[in-house]
């Protein structure tokens, strides 16, 4: 199972339950084979399996009441047909490389006016973004940060980022995704890892008829890397 699909605290919860289960098993088997404490005439096999069943029920109840989803989506569906109807004509199923970050943000805000489902993955603090742009409250915003919190993604976890985008597209269908963390990730990851992420999410976007925007100042890259990105993506 991918990390993005695990619920918060699940690893610690399951580890605790397994640890308790193993400890209880050792104690029971000591009783079963040695009868060090219990009288010889008492057969504890039935008590053993009954305890295991009770433990499973308790563990299930704890899991149900403590699980928390990693992401909280703003559910806005049914307006995917409005993609590209605003100031910026766009083709569904396409991933764009945008050399001006402000232009990418403007595309997102314009799409929100037309009620298009939007996902904004950003290096900026979501609270500050919502204060600056009121329309952002209608979008799903995920903070690209190493902090462990809800609605965050670690910028070094390429597989988790790809899976998050895939899950969003599965839930919302055609939508606009703005990913403005490429410049940061270029300093944290090898270019080939980043290229693999771009190719992977581009294919998911094409399959779901969405639009993916990658704002990036290409002057920070070597010429050969810029050419690779331009070959993989549509330039806007």
Q: How does this structure look, described?
A:
- With 236 residues, this protein is an alpha/beta fold.
- It has 2 domains: 3-66; 80-235, P-loop containing nucleotide triphosphate hydrolases (Rossmann fold), CATH 3.40.50.
- Helices cover 50% and strands 12% of the residues.
- It has 8 helices and 7 strands, in the order ααβαβαββαβααβαβ.
- It has a 7-stranded parallel β-sheet, sandwiched between helices.
- Helix 5 packs parallel to helix 7 (191-208).
- The longest helix is centred in the first third of the chain and has 25 residues, at 10-34.
- The two termini are 36 Å apart.
The strand line-up of the biggest sheet is 4-3-2-5-6-1-7
How many separate helices?
Answer: 8
The CATH superfamily label of the largest domain reads P-loop containing nucleotide triphosphate hydrolases
Number of strands: 7
Secondary-structure topology with pairs:
Blueprint (H helix, E strand, L loop, with lengths): L9 H25 L10 H22 L27 E5 L2 H13 L4 E5 L3 H7 L7 E5 L7 E2 L4 H15 L3 E4 L2 H7 L2 H18 L2 E5 L7 H10 L1 E2 L1
Parallel strand pairs: 1-6, 1-7, 2-3, 2-5, 3-4, 5-6
Helix pairs in contact: 1-2, 5-7
List keywords for this structure.
236 residues; alpha/beta; Rossmann fold; seven-stranded parallel beta sheet; disordered N terminus
């Amino acid at each position: 199972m991918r990390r993005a699909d695990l619920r918060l605290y699940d690893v610690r919860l399951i580890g605790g339950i397994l640890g308790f289960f193993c400890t209880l098993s050792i104690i029971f088997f000591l009783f079963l084979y040695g009868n060090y404490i219990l009288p010889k005439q008492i057969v504890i096999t039935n008590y053993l399996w009954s305890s295991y069943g009770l433990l499973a029920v308790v563990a299930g109840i704890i899991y149900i009441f403590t699980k928390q989803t990693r992401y909280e989506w703003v559910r806005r569906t049914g307006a995917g047909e409005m993609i590209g109807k605003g100031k910026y004509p766009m083709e569904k199923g396409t991933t764009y490389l945008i050399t001006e970050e402000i232009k990418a943000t403007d595309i997102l805000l314009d799409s929100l006016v037309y009620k298009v489902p939007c996902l904004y993955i950003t290096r900026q603090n979501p609270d500050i973004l919502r204060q600056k742009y009121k329309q952002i409250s209608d979008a799903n915003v995920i903070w690209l940060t190493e902090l462990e919190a809800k609605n965050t993604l670690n910028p070094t976890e390429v597989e988790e980022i790809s899976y998050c985008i895939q899950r969003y597209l599965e839930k919302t269908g055609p939508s606009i995704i703005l990913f403005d963390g490429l410049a940061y990730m270029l300093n944290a990851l090898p270019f080939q890892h980043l290229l693999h992420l771009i190719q992977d999410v581009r294919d998911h976007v094409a399959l779901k008829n969405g639009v993916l925007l990658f704002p990036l100042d290409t002057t920070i890259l070597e010429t050969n890397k810029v050419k690779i990105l331009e070959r993989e993506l549509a330039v806007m």
